[in-house]
Amino acid sequence: MSYKRPRAISPSGAQKRPRGAGAASTTITLGTELPPDEDSDDGTFVPVWKQTVTDERGRRRLHGAFTGGFSAGYFNTVGSKEGWAPKTFVSSRSNRNKDTTQRAEDFMDEEDKAAAAESRELETAQSFATIGRVGGSQNDALFGLFVTEEETMGVKIAQKMGWRRDQGVGRKVCRPARLDDAAGATAHTFAPKDSRIMSAAKEEVNRKGLGYRSEARLGATEEKEPEDRPMLALPWLEGPSKTKAPKRAAPKKSSFGVGVLNDTGSDDEDPYELGPRIKFNKSLGKDKKPKKPSKLAKAGVEGIVFKPKKASGESSARPQLSYDGKPPLPGFVLATQIIDLTSKKRYPPPKVPSGWKASKSTTEPAHAKSHQSVSDAAKSSTLDARARASLLGEKLLSGKSVFDFIPKDVRDRLATMTGKVNLPQGRGEGAPEGYEDPNSTKPKDLWTFVPILDKGTAAAALAKGATGWMPYAEDPNKRARYVSFLELRAGLKADLPERAGQTSVSNWAKELQEFAHAAEVFKPTTGLMASRFISSTATSLPGSGSSTPNENLVRRPAARPQDPAEQAAKLGMYGPMTRSTFPFYPSRLLCKRFNVRPPPDPPSADTNVDGAAFGGRTEEAVSKSAMDKMVHEVLSQGAPALQRPAWVGAPPEQPVEVSEASPIVPGGEHANVDVEKNDALTQERAPEDVFKAIFGDDDDDDDDDA
Amino acid sequence: MPYFPTTPIAKLTGHTGPVHAVAYSSSPHSYILTGAADRTIRLYNPSKAPPSSVAPTSSAAYAPGLITKYNAHGYEVLSIDVNGANDRFVSTGGDKIVFLWDVQTAQTVRRFTGHAGRVNRGVFGGEGDSVIVSASFDGTVRVWDVRSSSYKPLMTFSDAKDSVTDVLVFDGAIVSGSVDGRVRSYDLRTGYCEVDVIGYPVTSLTLSKKGTEILVSSLDSTVRLMDRGNGQLLKAYRDQAFVNTDLRVRSTLGLNDSVVLSGSDDGMTFAWDLLGGTALHKFRHSEMREMRGTAEKKEKGKKDIVSAVAFCPSRREWASAGGDGNVVVWGTDS
């Protein structure tokens, strides 16, 4: 569109200036010329940047690329009064957008701002510690406000001057390095050793106002020894020499009008008179009164310090720190001795006046006297067991001890074992009348030979024998005895195990022990072991050594519950009897991979009448009674006619011939089984419209669409 | 069945152990994959292996018709299944792993681990062979996802109470046969599993083309054709000489579902008429010939087993794999 337009044709001859100056114009122009049409395209050359694009109705269509673009705004309203004014593009490359952080106030209206201003509180910045200092001098309230946790200016200055932490202050010392291997140590300049500041060597800074009365107010004072340094002091500037100085307490302020500065120098007028009667050093330098025990000196003999009990007078003058290292609260004195609470004073009970008689007298004053313990009563009682029994009206047992019943040799054994010779004689009597064992004494003795076997083990051994292997296959008689023993121990029988022929009791007992050991093998597996095995459901193959003698010998405790479906299958009655159905739920992804619609959600428990747990349950299509009936019918009438596959043409003319080995009874009548209808399928599922109602609007029916 | 293929047309040799699995390749069905107890899977071109071919003396040499060997199994190979595109196949065996192979490169693409026992069967399933269904000695049927890289099975069916010997996939159903004598048909559409009690350990399952009947081999020397719809017995195939009581022997349907074919414990292969139930043919695998009459009862050799049979879906041709390590392909003369 920005082709260069052809130049305008050279001016017509009418417009040409006559060449000859003298020649008059040959044409006459009438009327005024129309103003040149700016918009009309008269074919004159217009530079590209002046060209405009208009639509067929003459409206401008193309604005500048940066001023609205093609047909900008709503129908060319750009730049008009109704439209938006195009902004010229400003590159943000050099003029980046200022990243102004937004404040909460930007989003507040006047009301919010007023509310915010009201709720404002004045607080210190983070670097300030709490107001005051715990354990610090309380009279520094104002300065305590400004104590910062930061380093003080003094530290900063000292650091600027080259001081480092853990160094001493002062000139550098030239000394050999103190290494562990001292050999070949050359001298270097080191910073002086940092000497620890004695926290005790601290002066109290007192800023007191007019009329301040310090501890003079209190009758007694105790000397304070605050741990903290004065807040604005630089203790390390005091120098090492000062640390050696004994503790100096600041002079106590006295009452108004008389101060240290007012000291006239006369000793008689002691300004500290009002304070505690303690002598202070008032001058620096030499210690004038070395009698005062220094704290440092005490520290050396801390281990063997002796604390006199009667030191109350001294303790008032001596600094005392409580267990947490702080002086006790003003007005309190540390206890010098621990009060023994256990050794409480005991006061005697109040004396009962003579002749006093309680209004509440016991009705039976003699009762208290007769009350005595059971053991005392037993001691004092002269009754023996017989007398007590007669008192209680009990029927008298034959009053015999154990020794009356044990044989003599047993009694002797007891006597030798216990070492007591005064045991009664063993008489070896029988049981008293009315208490004998119903069985004769002889079988009772024999019972002791029958070994104990766990009931479960015996039952398992029996069950195993009923289905498969059982020991003593070579000796049927022995096996029978074994079985009877197992039945006894399984609780199925109660009589004594039989004894074969003329075997002696010892042999018989030995055999029974052997049986017990053999049955132990069949102990049911428990726990981890049981979980590892699944009992096989595959039955033994037909014709594999039928064990008819076993059948006779092994009296089955109960018919092994056999699956009716298996029974039906063995009879060749395949169909509804051998078929069962249980629900499962395929995973969604599996259904997706098979491109089938997943079944409507877990075959809901509400359709199950009994609400059994979903998943593992198999449901029999035919009830047990119906099954038995069908089995009976088939056995009596023959198997149902075999069905042809749907795609096989005509049914065969003659009954299907089956080889002789077949257990199937060929041909015959139909059993009363509706083979067309499977109850298992019809009864289990809810009607389709139920599913539709619930799952009708399921989204993923793409497999249907496909 | 006048045209039942009775002539050996090829003999695939080379395996040094009993062949447990035979599978025709997909659509052209021109190749045969065999898996054997010698831990190898071999791909054969049966047209290059004449019946007279003998196994090479050295194991390194390639037997006639042998195209490739697939070596990865550490135990015997028990089943092979080829996918529809013929580029992958799945093999399972004693090493509890389901192998997914690439046919061209002879490398395993995926190995699915998770079974606790030997895997008796592995088949492709789903749309576009997107899953592998495996049946294992541990009593579970697991469904593995081929498309995702998940190492976990999509689903595990652990309803069987004994070893699961065979599984097949048809449409939206997974059918498994177990030693506990049951055929379980999991219908993914309805969410119900139908359990058909066969009564004897089930060793092989084959589905008809329509999917409404299923051929079930069980260890009572009987092959049964069951109706999947209602679980009824359609036909039982037996023979006096047919013995299958101990071993997992495959059976199959052939010739457009008109013939039932089954191997046996004693080296015979039996072909029954599906409708009539009469034994049409008996073949002795080791002698590569059809047996006539019923009288001859040969002494059963140790290796005389026909453990797997496969029917070519498109041609009149089938293959029987024996305990002697050879696979015989039977066809018509012409």
UniProtKB/TrEMBL annotation, chain A:
InterPro entries: DUF1604, G_patch_dom. Residues 1-45, 88-108, 237-300, 344-380, 421-442, 538-566, 648-706 are annotated as: Disordered. It holds the Pfam family DUF1604. Signal peptide: none annotated. It comes from the Eukaryota. One of its GO terms (cellular component) is nucleus. Residues 96-106 have a biased composition (Basic and acidic residues). Residues 150-215 form the G-patch domain. GO terms for molecular function: RNA binding. GO terms for biological process: mRNA processing. Residues 371-380, 538-551 have a biased composition (Polar residues). Residues 696-706 have a biased composition (Acidic residues). PANTHER family: G PATCH DOMAIN-CONTAINING PROTEIN 1. This is G-patch domain-containing protein.
Automatic annotation (TrEMBL), chain B:
It comes from the Eukaryota. It holds the Pfam family WD40. GO terms for cellular component: catalytic step 2 spliceosome; cytoplasm. GO terms for biological process: mRNA splicing, via spliceosome. GO terms for molecular function: kinase activity. CDD domains: WD40. SMART domains: WD40. This is Mitogen-activated protein kinase organizer 1 (WD domain-containing protein).
